[in-house]
Amino acid sequence: MSRTLPEPSIDELDLTAILGALVDPARRAIMTVMYRGPEPFDCSASTWCANLGVTPPTISHHFRTLREAGLTRTVVDGRSRNVRVRKEDVEKRFPGLLDAVLGHDTEGSDTL
Question: What parts of the sequence cross the membrane (predicted)?
């Protein structure tokens, strides 16, 4: 049986928390890959996370920080953790934010 991990509601989304989560280059890189790529993203099966040069517990911390900021939704199904960007929810609360930060290539941006 799958379950969704706790996350803030749309009304609880906070710009400071979102920008605080995205200030970290590794989290911004994770979000960029998920935002531009196909969803859902199975973080337990991702090999590209090794390219970030951080340990698995640190990757888990980054995914938790993104979820707690309200940027992602994580559904646990057995050993699998499927993560989606909450594009529609964030867009309702802060129109254009994710596209401005993650939606286009910029010189010096973080890529994997």
Answer: none
User: Which residue is it, tokens 């867009």?
Assistant: 91
Coil vs helix vs strand at 32: helix
Q: State which amino acid sits at residue 75.
A: V
Residue appearing with tokens 């590209």: 48
The Cα 73–Cα 44 span in angstroms is 15
In this predicted structure, the answer to whether residue 88 has a pLDDT above a threshold of 70 is yes
Residue 34: CA atoms inside 13 Å, Cβ hemisphere, count? Answer: 26
Mean pLDDT, rounded, for 14-18: 97
**pTM of the prediction?**
0.83
Residues paired with residue 99 on neighbouring β-strands, in sequence order: none
Q: Tell me the mean pLDDT in the region 68-82.
A: 91
Residue 101, token pair as written in the block: 């930060």
